[in-house]
Design a protein that fits this description.
Helix content is 39%, strand content 16%. It has 290 residues and is an alpha/beta fold.
Length: 290
């Protein structure tokens, strides 16, 4: 069985078996964007913001590899250059984001500022995470597999769990907190289904403005999240079967790489690939939501 076969419902063409927070969010915000990313697999240019997010996440993960006594702002800042060198080696194209060495130095400086901001939010010398950058997944009774990567999972001596996610942007307006919490409830649902424990705290750490958003879910909310994901899964399946993915214009279009192909912007989407249901791919391990 191939990796692609594993994301299909046996005997059910067009039904996606695997769903991640990012792809679920894509479909909710713009079904056509979901199609471009998950089915057409159109390339997207790296951005300085997303690349910085990847870099900062790597530094914060490596920080906890150090002995607790060495987890200082200075040590964290010293991790930025090596992490950048590794990123550049694995993705050489990110070098083209910068016009010259001065622009690169400024950008690296902004990454260090975000790493420094982390220390104003918590003291890493007092923490020993249970997991970092961990793949979590579960399969629901319907056959839908949920999977994603958790930045950090903390476990108290009582067994209470806290899911932590780092964001390099700014905290959302209260009107848009629900969108941010959707990802965290997704993770909480997977943890609940795999461990039988509802996470006590969902914690979003916004390094851009040094804000922390905390939320305590309950079983009722996680069951509602499960029903929502099942409905999304069914809607994605119907869209694939019909070959119809509508565009949903919004302010997010300003950052979309695919405007030239979008009917909402005067473009023409390419024909659906043959056997589109066999092209649906899973969330890449390196994806970082900034």
């Amino acid at each position: 069985m191939t990796a692609i076969d594993e994301v299909l419902r046996p005997g059910g063409p067009g039904r996606v078996l695997s769903l991640s927070p990012s792809r679920a969010s894509d479909f909710m915000s713009c079904p056509l964007l979901y199609r471009f990313r998950a089915i057409d697999r159109l390339p997207e240019k790296p951005s300085s913001a997303a690349t910085r997010g990847t870099l900062v996440h790597t530094v914060l993960e490596r920080l906890f590899e150090l002995p607790a006594s060495q987890r200082s702002p200075e040590q964290a800042a010293a991790l930025v250059e090596p992490a950048w060198a590794e990123l550049l080696d694995s993705e050489p194209e990110v070098a083209d984001l910068f016009a010259d060495s001065r622009e690169l130095l400024d950008w690296l400086g902004s990454a260090r500022e975000l790493v420094a901001a982390y220390f104003s939010l918590e003291d890493p010398t007092r923490l020993e995470p249970a997991a970092r950058e961990q793949l979590i997944e579960t399969t629901l009774p319907s056959g839908l597999r949920l999977r994603g990567f958790v930045d950090r999972l903390d476990e108290a001596s009582t067994g209470a769990l806290r899911i932590v996610d780092y964001k390099t942007g700014r905290a959302p307006d209260p009107m848009f907190e629900a969108r941010a919490l959707f990802q965290m409830k997704f993770y909480a649902l997977v943890i609940w289904r795999t461990r039988g424990v509802v996470p006590a705290v969902l914690q979003l750490m916004y390094l851009g403005d040094r804000e922390v958003l905390r939320y305590s879910p309950d079983e009722v909310e996680l069951l509602a999240t499960e029903r929502k994901l099942e409905a999304l899964w069914a809607a994605i399946g119907r869209s694939i079967e019909k070959g119809e993915f509508r565009a949903s214009p919004s302010r997010l279009c300003d950052w979309c790489d695919h405007q030239a192909l979008c009917p909402a912007w005067g473009g023409t989407a390419p024909p659906m690939p043959a056997l589109a249901e066999q092209r649906v791919e899973e969330e890449p391990a390196v994806a970082v939501d900034v």
